Amino acid sequence: YNISSETVSESCPSNIALIKYWGKYEDQIPANPSISYTLTHCKTNTTIDFSAHESFSVQTFLSGKEEMQFAEKIEKYFKNIEQYLPWILKGKYVIRTENTFPHSSGIASSASGFGAIAKCLMKLDGVFSEKSSDEASLKKASFLARLGSGSACRSLYEGLVVWGETDEVEGSSDLFAVQYPNAEIHEVFKDFNDWVLLIHEGQKSVSSTVGHGLMKTNPYAERRFQEARENFVPMNKILKNGDLEQFIKLVEHEALTLHAMMMMSDPAFILMKTGTMEVINRIWDFRKETALPLFFTLDAGANVHLLFPNNGSEEQIKTFIETELMQHTQKNGVVKDVMKF
Ligand code: PMV
User: Fold this and answer.
1) Does the beta carbon of 32 sit less than 6 angstroms from any atom of ligand 1?
2) Most exposed residue of 111, 152, 201, 285, measured as fewest CB within 10 angstroms of its CB?
3) Rounded to whole angstroms, how far apart are CA atoms 281 and 286?
């Protein structure tokens, strides 16, 4: 290796899962396949100053503020991936990172964060070792991101992305994510909104690491993993035929199942808040009254992701959100994103 000091910068968006990953085995192997949308505006921008030939150390700054805990996490992560990047422990790192969306907003900053770091590492790898093809390098970035945070591996690709082996998606793997074949996706899914209602911006009471761990003793876990695998069959059909009604049913079921798993864990935990329930019920009433395609998904938190296509009814839906749903948030908080591809 011809190692020199380098500065690299990369940007990576977050993603929101439609079929959820919840439960894993050793080495970040997912218990079931998952599929997500990669966001457009919610991103992490990361710069790494790498000083070669100094002793290994990691310093991290989040929006300009030094974060020791994050540095420790990254140090552990780098040691863990040395087997895949042999040069990685041969220098000093100063990592500066900032998110384009509010901190602890329930938009997965670990997904965009580890995605951006993995992309930076692959850029350094391209300088220090023999250049691989862009495609191979992207695949390896997804592989490395997965070892930081499972869902991060899906953020390396645009549009709809699958992680976890399933017969329903060719080339899918437990080790890295793959893009869902674009040519097979119905037009209606190619221009979609994701507005995140910030119901509660505080720290989550249970981390996703602990949550994944509790699936090991959850008596419903095996059935859940099987259901997620089975859900790829209707999902595949829906993505091709554009049946929004079935899409809504499946996506909301996945979100509620994720939270049901939390309630059935031992110890049980609940990440939804009163506002979460309130908003879900208002969405259901709105759909009954108008038959318009506004629906929700949830991540591992209280905030509600509002999903709706740009297919002509979006103005009426946006007005409803702004006049009826925003009041259930803290400080009228909403983060507006789109998934266009
Ligand atoms: O990537 P992790 O380990 O933070 O897991 C997050 C899992 C969910 O966000 C709850 C669901 C998913 O598939 O993204």
Assistant:
1) no
2) 285
3) 9
Please report the pLDDT score of residue 105 as a whole number: 67
Average pLDDT over residues 289-308: 97
Q: What is the CA(21)–ligand 1 centre distance, in A?
A: 6
Instruction: Assess whether pLDDT exceeds 70 at residue 186.
Output: yes
Domain ranges of the chain: 6-184, 191-340
| Mean pLDDT, rounded, of the chain | 95
Q: What is the pTM of this model?
A: 0.97
What atom of ligand 1 comes closest to residue 110's alpha carbon?
4
* Structure tokens given for 25: 């085995």
Q: What is the pLDDT of residues 55-75, one digit of tens each?
A: 999 999 999 999 999 999 999
- d(CA 120, CA 85) in angstroms, rounded, equals 12
Return the CATH class of domain 6-184: alpha beta
- Vertex 251, ends 246 and 255: CA angle to 5°? 150
Ligand 1 neighbourhood includes 50 CB (under 6 angstroms): no
What is the architecture, at CATH level 2, of domain 191-340?
Answer: 2-Layer Sandwich (3.30)
Q: Comparing C-alpha atoms, which of 88, 12, 96, 11 is closest to residue 47?
A: 96
288 Cα–ligand 1 center, Å: 30
Q: In this predicted complex, what is the ipTM?
A: 0.99
3-state SS of 185-252 is CCHHHHEEEEEEECCCCCCCCCCHHHHHHHHHHCCCHHHHHHHHHHHHHHHHHHHHHCCHHHHHHHHH
291 C-alpha to ligand 1 centroid (Å): 30
Residue in 22, 38, 114, 154 to alter for ligand 1 test, most ligand atoms within 8 A of Cβ: 22
Nearest-CA residue for atom 10 of ligand 1: 300
Q: 135-167: per-residue pLDDT in tens?
A: 999 999 999 999 999 999 999 999 999 999 999
What distance in Å separates the CA atoms of residue 334 and residue 305, rounded to the nearest whole number?
10
